[in-house]
Specification:
about 160 residues, alpha/beta, 4-stranded parallel beta sheet, globular
Length: about 160
């Protein structure tokens, strides 16, 4: 069974012998098979470079999460930092500037990120939705919300 919203396909594990009522070992929270969940967990926990994705207006959360993840030993790709290196005065209008920044950010995401971490409000932001879409389309960059990532990180650290 393929889940279009998941980075990895979910596979069912038979837990009963053939002929008996078939059951599957599934993670009830995610709906993924236990094997798929384990593979995803390992990929996420082995991530070294994290791309942050969220609404541009949420600068303070980007800054806070960037510092927190950096202190935890991760390399962080922060689109705010990328776009600050571009002078908006070089463009005819704000839309042209935004598109240029998106091209730069998508290039960084696709070339260097092991994991994309979403921040609060990403679902309502066109740039963040594009970044998440690219990560999912590429298929090798897992996507996880910051709260879930930090929870997973803490659980694996103990």
């Amino acid at each position: 069974m393929e889940n279009k919203n998941s980075i990895i396909d979910t596979h069912f594990i038979q837990t009963t012998p053939p002929g008996e009522k078939q059951q599957t070992a599934m993670n009830n929270r995610t709906g993924m098979s236990m094997v798929a969940h384990s593979i995803l967990n390992k990929k996420i926990m082995n991530s070294k470079t994290i791309y942050l994705s969220g609404p541009e207006k949420n600068f303070h959360e980007f800054e806070k999460v960037d510092k927190e993840l950096t202190a935890m030993g991760f390399k962080v790709i922060n689109p705010h930092v990328i776009c600050q290196s571009v002078d908006p005065k070089l463009f005819k209008n704000e839309e042209d500037y935004w598109q240029h920044c998106m091209r730069l950010c998508i290039a960084e995401l696709s070339a260097f990120a092991d994991l994309l971490v979403t921040l609060t409000g990403w679902e309502d932001n066109r740039g963040a939705k594009k970044e998440v879409g690219v990560a999912r389309e590429l298929g090798f960059i897992p996507v996880e919300h910051i709260v879930a990532f930090l929870s997973r990180y803490e659980a694996n650290a103990n």
